[in-house]
Specification:
two-stranded antiparallel ribbon, three-stranded antiparallel sheet, single chain
């Protein structure tokens, strides 16, 4: 069932997803979190490409072919040298897990990823609405990037 698209005071599109869809998106987030902690996922990444696909949080250290089946429609590029202001140049999956899920902006970051997933699932289920879906997914991913940078700064300051 398509979401009702409402524009809030800041011009962002908002919607009320069903409880079922929300549970699915939270489950996808939990799979992503567990994947980052999977033994053997410790190879360092200098750059992270992060996006929301229908059934997963897509992440890799190489750019995605956005035209490939199942690929996210939009990704955000995060360079760890820039993110940490030169303090470190690469990060392991476990370190990325810490930045995503243990910092002061973790709830905001998780909420943005969940809503990115919800927007992508809606886009693929009901059809893309021009200037709604992709714009909303992009806003979610930019929120993730900003929250990740804040988490990084706080964690570096704490030592």
């Amino acid at each position: 069932m398509p979401f009702d698209y409402i524009v809030n005071q800041t011009g962002q599109y908002v919607f009320e997803p069903s409880e079922e869809e929300t549970k699915v998106a939270i489950g996808i987030m939990k799979k992503f979190e567990n994947l980052l902690l999977f033994p053997g996922s410790t190879e360092g990444m200098e750059t992270l490409y992060l996006g929301c696909a229908f059934d997963r949080v897509a992440f890799d250290d190489r750019p995605y072919d956005l035209t490939a089946p199942g690929a996210p429609a939009i990704v955000v590029k995060i360079e760890f040298d820039e993110l940490s202001d030169g303090v470190f140049t690469e990060i392991t999956s476990e370190g990325l897990h810490g930045l995503l899920f243990r910092g002061p902006e973790s709830k905001r970051l998780a909420k943005a990823l969940i809503f990115g997933l919800l927007w992508e699932r809606d886009r693929l289920t009901t059809g893309e609405v021009e200037d709604v879906h992709l714009r909303s997914i992009q806003e979610c991913l930019m929120t993730v990037r900003e929250a990740l940078k804040t988490n990084c700064k706080v964690m570096l300051a704490e030592g």
